[in-house]
Amino acid sequence: MVRISTSYVIHCSSTSFVFTEGYWSILTPEKAFLARVFVEHCKNIRDYAKLENTLPVVTLIAFRIQEAYNHLIEDITNQDDHAEDLDNEEIDRREDERIARELVISELLKLAVNLDYSDEIGRRKTFQLVRASLPLLYCILPSRARRRRYVEG
Length: 153
Known about the structure:
Strand order of the largest sheet: 1-2
Helix content: over 70%
Structural class: mainly alpha
Number of helices: 6
Number of domains: 1
Order of helices and strands: EEHHHHHH
Distance between the termini: 49 Å
Shape: elongated
């Protein structure tokens, strides 16, 4: 068994690899990336039993995506509202946090593509979340990317 931190634990042995509930409570881009790569690995080697025993239900993943999405929208709203009152260092810090939230959402959505949607509640929650959030993200994120390209280049 390998312990990787006091804030979250990954149990690992020759036969099992389990993300505990604490792992999903506060997601970083690195943690989301690790989970996504693990899911893809299990799918590639067709080890569906390991995947089933390791990951939480689809509903939990959907709620984590929703939580990350809500934080991202809140950050974008606050960043636009108070941009003139901040120094460059604070603007950079907030931009880094926003990018980290975008990466978490991206990794969780990539992970969600490979999950088992036989859980009706999880399937509906994920569908509802994607349907509600994509249009807003499409409106917000591309305009910010265009502004960034304009400033940088």
